Amino acid sequence: MQNRHLTILLTDIKGFTSKTSTSSRSQTIELLKKHRDIVVPVIEKNKGRVVKNIGDAFLAVFESPTDAVLCGIEIQEVLKKHNEDKSNEEKIEIRIAINCGEVSVSQDGDVFGEPVNITSRLESIAEAGQVFFTEAVYLSMNKNEVPSSEIGYRQFKGIAQKIKVYRVLNETPVGAPEKITIQEETTPEPQKDMSQKASFGARFAAILLDFIIFSIVVSMLGFKDSNQADVISFEEGKNLRIEAGNKQHNMNPQRIRIDDEGIEISGKDGDKVVINDEGISVAGKGGAGGREAGEKYVKSRDGKIKYNYRKESKKLPWKFLLWFLYCGIMVWRFSATIGKMIMRIKVVGENGEKLGADRAFLRAIVSLLSLAVLLIGYLWALGKEKQTWHDIVARSRVVKA
Description:
By secondary structure, the protein is an alpha+beta fold.
């Protein structure tokens, strides 16, 4: 396999799937044959080589970017004449995309590499009857032979960088560039400007709504953020009262033993409470139970024994995790949380693109930091750029939907 710098041309038929769904097999074969009879001779005439035919699509390569674009123009002109006296069902309308770059060429002549992938992505947005090409082609071709117009930057799936796209101006005859007196104005892809950015008030209202909705859902799920203390207290001549979490147990103490192994309290009715490094266990008429050991127990001078059971709350981390998942999934799948949907704002990339899962979840986890540091990360949106800390890190913006 060798590497070569080539220009890639890709064509496909507009509405081919719908055409074949209402056609017989013989009609489909005839359509593809007619397509081949029109396209292949033009490619070969313009010094191109057909690499492969995939259904209704042709992939061809050229040594010269100018030859590739002129080939695309000629194909569209030939098809235009072919369609003049045809019904809508008989017309063949194709989209053409062209890109150039270094590709790998296999022994059987097939080509691979990112330039091919970009061509495929470009073809998906090309219009029927048009010839679209990338900036790489524009910079390499002879511009005097091909009148063109800039469309603007596009972000394609699976391609890291933005690609500037051009199209051939069909109004101008090929071979007569001298007749062009006014170049068509550049029409870059619309981007979100400062006036379209969401206001701080809208963002604040959205996050407030999200907190309210989140709190209601979490409350319904039964999550609580409270440390718990188990207290055992008694006074001479009175019952022993045990408070263990949400449960209470009363017994009449008869004997109390305190040694290196812990505390054992026996009741007159056969109840027994044992406190040791394993926690508190209660047996008798009050039932049996136990808890994981926490802080050590002590005996005070006033006759009260207090066992402090304070476990690290396992609920608070769950809330943080749920908030992370909520923000990450909603922004990834819908570009907005419920609060943002209500306020008609959404989260997009710096160029208006939808955030992928990686950036959406990165934004979500940094939002916890923005929240934890006295809301400073959120208040950062009061600045000129109207971006929070998590917006800056994830390279995102909040704009009007």
